[in-house]
What we know:
The complex is a heterodimer.
Chain A: E1 8-10, H1 11-19, H2 21-29, E2 39-40, H3 42-63, H4 68-72, H5 78-89, E3 98-109, E4 112-124, E5 128-135, H6 143-148, H7 150-162, E6 177-183, E7 186-194, H8 197-216, E8 247-248, H9 259-264, H10 270-274
Helix pairs in contact in A: 1-2, 1-7, 3-5, 7-8
Chain B: H1 7-13, E1 20-25, H2 31-44, E2 52-55, H3 63-70, E3 81-83, H4 85-100, E4 114-115, H5 118-135, H6 146-163, H7 170-177, H8 183-204, E5 207-208, H9 210-221, H10 225-234, E6 237-240, H11 248-257, E7 263-269, H12 282-287, E8 294-297, H13 306-318, E9 335-340, H14 343-360, E10 368-372, H15 377-389, E11 394-396, H16 407-419, H17 429-439, H18 445-455, E12 456-459, E13 462-465, H19 473-479, H20 481-499, H21 505-517, H22 528-550, H23 559-568, H24 577-581, E14 588-592, H25 593-597, E15 603-608, H26 642-661, E16 664-673, H27 685-705
Parallel strand pairs in B: 1-7, 1-8, 2-3, 2-6, 4-5, 6-7, 9-16, 10-14, 10-15, 11-14, 15-16
Antiparallel strand pairs in B: 12-13
Helix pairs in contact in B: 1-2, 2-3, 4-9, 5-6, 5-22, 6-8, 6-9, 7-8, 13-26, 13-27, 14-15, 16-17, 16-21, 16-22, 17-18, 20-21, 21-22
Amino acid sequence: xxxxxxxxxxxxxxxxxxxxxxRFQLRYIEQLSWPAIAADPILDHERNxxxxxxxxxxxxxxxxxxxxxxxxxxxxxxxxxxWWQNYLQxxxxxxxxxxxxxxxxxxxxxxxxxxxxxxxxxxxxGQRAIIVDWKTSKxxxxxxxxxxxxxxxxxxxxxxxxxxxxxxxxxFEPEQVSMMYWFANAPETPEIFRYDATQxxxxxxxxxxxxxxxxxxxxxxxxxxxNERHCRFCTYRSLCDRGLAAGxxxxxxxxxSQEDLDIDLDLEHIAEIEF
Amino acid sequence: MDxxxxxxxxxxxxxxVDQHIWLEGPAGSGKTxxxxxxxxxxxxxxxxxxxxxxxxxxPTLGVVYHQAIRNPQHNINGVVDVTxxxxxxxxxxxxxxxxxxxxxxxGKPDQPPIFLNLETAxxxxxxxxxxxxEQDRYFESVTLDRNRIYSQILDNLNKAxxxxxxxxxxxxRLKAAWIGDDGQANVYDDVQDCANRFREYCLENNLLDxxxxxxVFINHLWSNEQCRSYLxxxxxxxxxxxxxxxTPLGHDFIKEWLPDFESSxxxxxxxxxxxxxxxADPFTGERLKESFEVQETLTESFVTSPDVQTLEKRLxxxxxxxxxxxxxxxxxxxxxxxxxxxxxxxINWVADSIAQLVHExxxxxxxxxxxxxxxxxxxxxxxQNRLEASDVPVQSHRPSRSMMEEPATRxxxxxxSLAHPDWGFPPTSxxxxxxxxxxxxxxxxxxxxxxxxxxxxxxxxxxxxxSFDQLKHNxxxxxxxxxxxxxxxxxxxxxxxxxxxxxxxxxxISRLFGEVLSQVGYGFHQNFDAAKVASNLIxxxxxxxxxxxxxxxxxxxxxxxxxxxxxxxxxxxxxYVKNWTLQNESAVLMAPAYTFLLNNRPVNYQFWxxxxxxxxxxxxxxxxxxxxxxxxxxxxxxxxxxxxxxETNQDTLHRLMVGLIRRCRERVFLGxxxxxxxxxxxxxxxxxxxxxxxxNLAVEEDDDGL
Lengths: 275, 706
């Protein structure tokens, strides 16, 4: 079994490959459902994810111009209320006017498609583009951890490489692009990553190498990770004989990523089938 | 698309990018190929991918567009939206909800919408209808499973919105068309009352079933300045494929939006309309054509040979229905059949013929489909066994199949009911034996039965599983200590779970799966099919919990217990996208005929089973609704007569035959047996038509001989 031709690489799938090649194989090549619990307490984990989705939706609605008052009255949860007020009071400043929310961008690399789902891209054509990613994780990750994440590399690279149609047909110069992680629990201290030509070249080489490596591997060459810390929050842990119970939610560094859920399976279609 | 395009296809594809084009033609004439390449052409002209909206009637028909967009060779920056009208509607309702929640009459303006799928809509419908059935004797004269009562009431609400009449007029329309006894009028009144109550309940609680999602979108959001501007600013180019399979609501919506697009490309499949029972209306679809200055037609089939086309023509002639197909070939060259007396003989003949095609003629298995009006479990099982025994890979596709029929589902629910004894659904000893066999690696049914019969019992305190130690030594040895240890692992986990605060049902099953059943030595470890079923079950329970939990009907009844009650009521599981997209591309497909048609994929060989069945002709029994009366083509106040019934059934059969034949390249095999699956002698209209056609051909041959 090999990766489907129409498979689209994303920051999530590439991060999976970097964390554990076997996980990548199970999830994306074999498309194996393995419905174990990812993190405990599961109810808290689920609530965090729900609130994260609600927060992203509220911000998207606000960015689309729906009146703040109409949105605020929809906020019925204390935690969400805190995040929402943090957003209203400490929105990222100096963002360009042209906004693209929950925006999908894709481009080709190594004869493959690379795709990213952006929370917000704010653009001043010909001048600058700012990627904003809303983070609702309990802990604020360290800057180095964010810098090493595939999300940072893929999002900056992809907008530079494939965002010309957002810039009157002209590709952005790497120096025109930056990415901001905005934290709902620490709204006054966002992390900003500026891009440049050197980093762009590094990222292109790195991402190409990753994709090339994946395409060259045969089915027996997707070994389990040596770092068993990655197994704590991996649902395949029982399949790989890497433990019984899920990891502690308090040790989870990142919030969930909705991106990969949305990209491959467009669940909105279910209702159409039912009728 | 890897194959060469015909000159007329290239001409249509390369029309100017500001052109509004209507393209029609029969199935197999390459319209979708043109549509996909038109999309690629727009992209090659630097049109932004996210400004193109591609609408299809259902997701399966959008797969070729997705594949083209995702093909890295096409080097596309950005993502084209390929969706359905209802998909778009749901997205817009979700996004712009705060703007219309009050105007649309919802009772909780400070709360988000709750979208219902078929299961959850039936759950709320059941809660409304059940007391009326039990206390007020609603639907007394109707013999119908409860889940079908619920689904037909929902179907009426759906028909009202897609056809475009108030949902409060359902009974009036149905009664006006009815010419039978007066009792049926009461039934329609019951239907109306239930539909009204359901709609009121939904409005009160921000619940949106399929019909209300569309209603809110079309009647409130589409006229809302902010939502409309969002759509108009985002999408500049429109492609619609299989427009004939959309509903009148979809056609009205497109017609109104059309002038705002810089370009459009609408594809109409002549003689189709297979989703009629879902509200599709090829007639309102065809009327869209008037809006286009450029109207093009493709006529030549890229799929069918002259012989296959002749088969279409000959069958159409016999059925006295028009056909533009040519009749220059010989229909007998492309049909193959053998009369068998008994149904199993016919199954054997089909399996042998397929094995011969695959093994001796090297036909790829995915170039073969087995079609029937309905695919019963028995038929599916018999064919699957026979084909697998002949080393032919096979996959079945039956959309209405409930996941509750899967052994892995039953196994998980058995353990869940033991984990929640207070819910009052104690499994039988047979259930427990079967679950043990599924759960414990290498355990056979004999050992599983031994354990279930000796260590499982139900008394006034509920169900109990005793320890393996309580088995006599000789029995322990028979079971083996290895399996006894695994049994104990499972039993201790269940006991431990019962001693804790109960979790939601989906979490319980997910935890049981991860911590026990999928561990080394247990039955779900390395069992990927069972894991997929478990995943579907957990998704289903979770989606139920998240919806029903937001608006619980009872504070006293745990939602997990309510889910068990849904199962008992036969409410089917929602469909999952994975089931539709993750198809084995190298296997023979077994599917109901309409499912195959709506996959829109030609094949070399088709096997039509149960040709003598009237199921090919009759519409399904729906005493609470009516797809033809509740359509825009029906004249309100007209009466539905036997003649209407026969005529529409003939039309339906003809449309089905033509659709299948136009998706067949080489040959149709007819599965004929004197007696059907139930041992009954049947002679349905399809068999009659085929026999008449063969007689005509024989006479012509004799005449030619003279």
